[in-house]
Amino acid sequence: MPDRFQVTKADEDTVLDYQHDESASGKLLGDIHDDEVPDSGDIHRDEENQKSTIDPNLYLYDDDLATRPHISTFISSIANYENTIPAATDPDAKPAAPSARMGTLIGVFLPCIQNIFGVILFIRLTWVVGTAGAICGFLIVLTCCCVTMLTAISMSAIATNGVVPAGGSYFMISRSLGPEFGGAVGMLFYTGTTLAAAMYIVGAVEIVLTYMAPWASIFGDFTKDADAMYNNFRVYGTLLLIFMGLIVFVGVKFVNKFATVALACVILSIIAVYVGIFDNINGNEKLYMCVLGKRLLKDIPLENCTKDDSFLRDIYCPNNKCEEYYLNNNVTKVKGIKGLSSGVFYDNIFPSFLEKGQFISYGRNSVDIENVGGQSYNQIMADITTSFTLLIGIFFPSVTGIMAGSNRSGDLADAQKSIPIGTICAILTTSTVYLSSVMFFAGTVDNLLLRDKFGQSIGGKLVVANIAWPNQWVILIGSFLSTLGAGLQSLTGAPRLLQAIARDEIIPFLAPFAKSSSRGEPTRALLLTIVICQCGILLGNVDLLAPLLSMFFLMCYGFVNLACAVQTLLRTPNWRPRFKFYHWSLSLLGLTLCISVMIMTSWYFALIAMGMAIIIYKYIEYRGAEKEWGDGIRGMALTAARYSLLRLEEGPPHTKNWRPQILVLSKLNDNLLPKYRKIFSFATQLKAGKGLTICVSVIKGDHTKITNKAVDAKNTLRKYMTDEKVKGFCDVLVAQEIGEGLSSVIQTIGLGGMKPNTVIIGWPYSWRQEGRNSWKTFIQTVRTVAACHMALMVPKGINFYPESNHKIGGNIDIWWIVHDGGLLMLLPFLLKQHRTWRNCKLRIFTVAQIEDNSIQMKKDLKTFLYHLRIEADVEVVEMNNSDISAYTYERTLMMEQRNQMLRALGLNKKENSKVDSQNDEKRNSIDSDGPENLDAPENLSNKDESTEKADDNIKSSVKPDEFNVRRMHTAIKLNEVIVEKSQDAQLVIMNLPGPPREVRAERESNYMEFLEVLTEGLEKVLMVRGGGREVITIYS
């Protein structure tokens, strides 16, 4: 047994007397009868009775437990939190069944698959491959997939940085970059989703009118007139929009159920295409095209595909005058689907970009592609001018939909795990399908048929449908239903997104759309969505809608990448994503790709999207705000600084924006040098919080007389800060009393919202020395810090702390006794951001009370740390309610005896001062009259005699106070456990017990003794006391 736990023989009798007063069950002295209680215990009788419910092992923290919960209480209250906003409930209604918690497959992967695979896959991918060629087509798809993959990585980092309630990109960006960016991105995302609904509706109409029911055209033969085709799309698109809008308005449940059907259609259709590719590996004898020379013809029956037939002659030789190209070239039948074994892949490697009005033909010979005569006859022409960048814009909507998982985060069982895995796996799956489809289409289908956008050369059939197995109707029906389902999902999601933005009240003119109908549906937002969607339908062309909505999605994805890059570079304390495979360079690359694709695709559409974002941003930022213009760069810098300070002054920062603004109180020695140099190193190691550091020292004296000393001390302080790489400011205050000076500094230091919120003060090692009042200054400072609602850190053993240029390994142990805002969780995380502590592992210990379930407590604590994104080993320490040991009584007796001795010595000093003055008078008379008698030595011996008498009286009368025994018991028991578990730890972080409420010398001295006992045997200790507010959160 260590020496400090041994009971000396001199005090054994006294200790045993008080042990007999304890009951066998371990009850404390509060249960002793009135006549048996020591007189000193009467002072605290009422206070102790009120605290009888406190665990005996935690009496040292009894003042804290009144306002700060014990850890078991705290973590059990948040272990089963809800991450969604509760809806209004009917008090008379039956309680609803608990919502299903979806996993990665159902909650993220499949919804992303459904939203990514869209109409472009079925009606435009073959045309993109034929026009761009296999190489450029592969690059187009790869570029789009890279954009979404990089965005998904950034989104995964943001989504796993805490609990993300439902809201998708709008919620993530608005909470990461602020309401201005959030509002702008929210409106962009809303507009893109609405235009996506328009594109899906036009695509669905195109599938029906072009490939399923061409007889339904109301504007004549649209194969001969493109305007007639687009007018058909506008009319039928409008009717379909009205029908789908009614479905969304009346039955949202139907939309959700239909989503499953649409998903099944998408998957079955893709499987049918892949099976068909290998089923037609040697080609398809049922599908032929008619080709004149190298030009592709349309509306020509195969039996008439010959020059010997009068059908072609009547077309190309009106009035017996034949068209020159017809005369100079032969007519042939070409197999449309040649199969992978044919080697047609080599014919589809290179691009075949055309300008509007040029003929679709083999090769790039101007004779074959140019329309010299002005008549198209039955030759298929390019309806738009194509280029690499334009095709990127047309194809890009095929890879959107990656936000589907994050939009459902409120319904996921483990969003931080499911969103990254599900989203990235969905992107990898769809990218694999797209990239392989490019190669398979290029290796299966003839180049002319690939470039035939509407399948006019094969009788108005969909090219992909004719590849599929067993027949084309699998694809036609499947693509129509999946496109319809995607449109319904867009019409359902867009109004809810608009309503969420309106309810945030960041865009005032959207306030009317925040209201819901009596059924809880966003009816007003739905009406606006239908109006905007109708504007998109009036464009009537998927090839125009696709690049336009691509702009809005690219802007949205660009802001997601920007948010991740900014958070990573700023390294805010709350930025702790559980998803680790991200980097700011990847986010910036994603942002660059988004901007580049926007500009390359359509610079005027890009300007529209950017202009819309800028207008919304400025509107949110400057509504009601005053602008002040300075002169030159300095004027703008001063305006920005003033604006930022005034913004910070508006209120305390949000929990996730809290960062330690450190005030270091450095003690100076007699040479005006900082006493503890490593306290500056410690402040530097906390710089991961990116907070402000101010170092201040207080000198005792008159400022008018020692101004030069103050200046020298400030220069020395600044040099120490520079040497230890502390970023911040320093100052020196001259005051009549050190304690008053420190109090003034704590209350007044800082400017506006940049006032320090955390104080670092050294431990007063000399507090036991007679004549030193450092402990009084220390406790006064602790009280001042608490009154100012600031956090406090007291490093003990500071000289053993590592230098900033050293690297250490081992454990950082956190002893979490009471919850005071989560500062104990945040500090080790910040320390580990510095290279000195980076290799250390975190271990968190907490104490279970008698009534606690330690197994459940450990599980809840692990859950809490998981949502905090902090990796640490967890251990719950069970402390039995043991009897108070003899050593506890001995240590308490020694502490109280010391206090009474000091009090007696203080009284004797006053008496001795009178004796000394009398002796001085006698010495003066002796010096003048000569030596007559020498009584001074006898009088001078009075001090020793009185001290001995006081010591004897104390030993015979003092008995330990119950109040002190309980706290000493807590300090000793906790210290035993901490030393046992953490003696080899590189740093032990623990709660600093609150100072005594009574301003009495005995209580304050006892408090210091309790802290000494609590930290005894530990080399490096950091005692922490929160400022009374939360500094860490599980939310993003």
From TrEMBL:
Residues 27-48, 906-961 are annotated as: Disordered. Residues 681-794, 809-1036 form the SLC12A transporter C-terminal domain. The gene is Dwil\GK15715. It comes from Drosophila willistoni. Belongs to the SLC12A transporter family. K/Cl co-transporter subfamily. GO terms for biological process: cell volume homeostasis; chemical synaptic transmission; chloride ion homeostasis; potassium ion homeostasis; potassium ion import across plasma membrane. One of its GO terms (molecular function) is potassium:chloride symporter activity. This is Uncharacterized protein, isoform D. One of its GO terms (cellular component) is synapse. Residues 908-926, 941-961 have a biased composition (Basic and acidic residues).
